[in-house]
Amino acid sequence: MLRNSSNYIRLALSCVLIVITFSLVCAEQLTRAKAIKIALKSQKISIDNVNLVVPFQKDSLRLSIIDKYLGNPLKAAEISDSIINSLDTNDIYQLVSSCAFLLDLTANIPVMGETKEVYPWKENVNIPPKLKMALDVLMTSFVDARNNMTLAFSDLDSFQIDSILKNSLKFLAPDHRRIDNQVNIATALEKDIRDLEEETADNRFFELAGKVEMQKILAAALSISKATTNSIELVKAVKAISGTTTVPSNMAYGDIVYYAETEFGPIIIGGIGPTVYLGNFAIIIDFGGDDNYFGTAGGTDTLQQFSILIDLEGNDLYWSGSHFSLASGLGGIGIIYDGNGNDIYRVENYNLGCGFFGWGILWDSNGDDSYIGNTSVIGAGFMGCGIIMDVNGFDKYQSNLYSQGFGFVKGLGVLIDINGNDSYMCTGSIIEKTNYYNHYLSLSQGYGFGYRPDYPGGVGILADFKGNDFYTADIFAQGSANWLSVGILYDSEGNDVYNAYQYAQGSALHLASGVLIDQLGDDVYMSHGTSQGCGDDLSIGYLNDRAGDDNYVVWDLSQGSGNANGIGVLIDEGNGSDSYTNKDNFDIRGFGTWRKEFGSIGIFLDLGGKDSYNGKGKDNSFWIFSTYSIGIDFQENHGLKSSE
């Protein structure tokens, strides 16, 4: 009875605080920051006291941006705004420079001299001067990049370098033991022995990985991306190209103007007609035609360190079943630039903007394109960076796992789409066996992931700037993160649909930060649970919709809910007429559990409009359900009343 009485007293005091505070700001424009202050003041909490403290010291693998989010969880929207604004650029070099700070690296402008080598194209009369200059610029950048990559791995011998590059793939393989326990062990002792052996190998891997100088890898990426940006303009300025050459039949056939062998690998120039590329190339420049790429084009692995492709025109097909063959870097730098055309990119694993101990970049300027892959594709980074930028067109992105803006340990994965009505689908390939038999792990669409419990994760970003878009995934996706990592999904404009099952749409667990921000449009959010602004276990889950008539549908533990010392926030801004639907009416819309020693914070705020609720909450009202949690529906120029 005393407990009930204290709750009533607390509710009454909160009511007074909310009404008084709101009356002071109702004549002004109600901003997100002011609304948060009102919510916190009602609970007698200062925003400066709301933070998530990591219970162990920062190590060399933990990125600073992770601590910035955890130290300022209620400023997650502002931090994300700053990150996305820095990525809004129009050339490859600037994008690489903008990504560097997220990896705690310094983007110094590369200084490259002129090459002293006399390459065979120098005397070729069929190659225009600007095209010769482009080749010179690229080859000079390769020399500079080779020097930097040598320094990056200088603390390791050749065997150790080969070991970490090859073994890096196992951590994000679809059948890795920490994701899918598909191996049957006869006895508990055998299992213990296997786990100990793998743990020892993992520790050895990261010990060696920590010796790699990431700043030097960035320097190589800056040199080659700057050279690529400059070369694109030089190639575009070429008015005409013609000529014939002899090419090995296993390398290419079709409209080919020039072919030569160099110290970095073969280079080839295709004309305005269709060409089929079969081999592994250091440089490809293609002026047009509907081309097919079946070999290495803008991809690098342990055998080839640098690869650049510049394709100006044509409806092209990029198809590979090999690792790190298209717009990818394994211990190197790989870049694809595709100018115009409706292109198809189809791969298996570790491609299309994938960087492991390197940088992989895909820049598609125009066309309705399709990107299809399996694992670690379409913007994925591990001890490196993977970037995919699509500027114009109605595009389709389809993958299974670790993709569409995925960051693993000290890695950054970025997917940016500037314009067009796009669809993002993560179909899944691994069943989430812990709790379900018919749902799949996605870990995609702006997802950060760490190697729990030993190593912190990275940063995954999906940013779409314009268009009516569809996002589909299953478990762990759409601005979500797990274990000392950051995941961001940012959509600037359009009527969008977000569909997932669990741990999605601004959700995080285990000392992580998951953020979904939608700026404009009438949007639909659908998920089963632990979504739509849900922070679990010392994490911040944050969903911020800034305008439009929106619909939110969930089952439970969502829409501004904190669990196990977590912080969950859902803020719907503007004067849209929104709808909130749920199955369970217990742990939603301003809910925080008292699990573990500190309790949790849940904040639900609707800043205007005529809204409808089928469960907890009411238009133009506030409600308090648990300690340190609150829901408020603000109505402009109106007072507030308690809905409970």
What does the model show?
The chain folds into two domains: 1-90 and 391-644, no CATH class; 118-155 and 216-373, no CATH class. Helix content is 22%, strand content 30%. The two termini are 19 Å apart. It contains nine helices and 47 strands. The chain is α/β, with parallel strands linked by helices. The protein has a 29-stranded mixed sheet that branches. Strands 5-8-12-16-20-24-28-32-36-39-42 form an eleven-stranded parallel sheet, with no helix packed on it. Residues 1-13, 22-27 and 177-182 have low confidence and may be disordered.
In a nutshell, what does this entry contain?
With 644 residues, the chain is an alpha/beta fold. The protein folds into two domains: 1-90 and 391-644, no CATH class; 118-155 and 216-373, no CATH class.
